Amino acid sequence: MDSPELPSGTPAESCLVETAKSEPIKLQVGERHFVTLPSTLTAESPYFACLLSSRWQNNQADRSYFVDADGDLFVYILRYLRSGTLPIFYRTPGGHDYGKYQALIGEAEYFGIERLKNWLKKREYENAVKVEHWVREHEDLESILYKTYNSNVELEYHPTWTVRKIYKCPRGIVLHRGNPSACGRQCRNAMDEDGPEYDEEDLLKTITITRTLVFDHTKASEFGNEPLL
Fold first, then answer.
1. In the listed set 71, 94, 123, which residue is the last one of a domain according to the structure?
2. Among candidates 93, 40, 35, which has minimal Cα distance to 64?
3. Residue 170 CB-half CA count within 13 A
4. What is the CATH classification number for the domain harbouring 25?
C-alpha cells in the first residue's frame, strides 16, 4: 500500500498547525466505522493531520471521513494512537503472528506513523516476549505431579524406566544397605575378592521440560521514547 501524497507544496507540519477540530469525528475505514478525537489521530500521523485540516473539506455528506484502508487492521492503528502502546501479537501455541505484523507495516507506512513502523520493521516485539526453558530429572514423580504452576508455564513429562544399583553389605546388615560408608572393617573383611556386590532395582525417572513465557510490557510502551544520553 502506497502512502497518500499531501497536496502539492503542503508539508505535514503545516497540516498539524491547521488542524483545529476538537469534537469527536466519525471515520469510515474500508467497511468499518470508528469514532475518535482528531487529536488522537493527528498526534503521530501526517496523513490524518492533512485529512482533518481546516484547509480542505474532505468529509462526506454525513460529515464522516472516508479512509481507503483495511478496516480490520485499523483497529490496531487506532488502539496504538490512543494508548501509545505498541502491538504484540503472540499466542500459545503458535507464537508470533508474523503475517499480521507484516500487514500492519503497510498500514503504518500508509498513515506515516514512524514509531509504529520502526517497531514492526525492526521486529522489536521479539524482544518483548521471552521463553525460558528448564530441563530437570526427577526420581520422585509425586513431587512434580501435585504442584500448582502459573498460567504462563507449560510442562512436558518424559518418564523412563532405568535400573538403580544399591550397595549390598557383605554381612547382610540391613542398615548398611545402600550406604557403603556404614560398613566397617569386619564388613570389608567379609567382602569377596571381586569387590562389593549390588542389588538391582527398577527405577522410574521423569524428565520435565518447563517453558515459561515472560512478557516485558515495558518494551511495548518505552520503545522510541528512550531519553537521549
1. 123
2. 35
3. 16
4. 3.30.710.10
Q: With beta carbons less than 8 A apart as the criterion, state whether 195 and 188 touch.
A: no
pTM of the model: 0.70
Query: How does pLDDT run along the chain (229 residues), one tens digit per residue?
Result: 544 444 434 455 556 545 455 789 999 999 999 999 999 999 999 999 988 886 666 667 778 899 999 999 999 999 999 999 999 999 988 899 999 999 999 999 999 999 999 999 999 999 999 999 999 988 877 777 777 888 889 888 888 888 989 999 998 888 998 899 999 989 888 888 888 889 888 888 889 999 999 999 899 988 877 543 4
Helix extents (H) in the chain: 12-18, 38-42, 46-51, 71-83, 98-111, 114-121, 125-128, 142-145, 185-189, 217-222
Same domain as 139, residue 117: no
Q: Is 76 helix (H, G, I), strand (E, B) or coil?
A: helix
Q: Which three cell numbers stand for residue 160?
A: 523412563
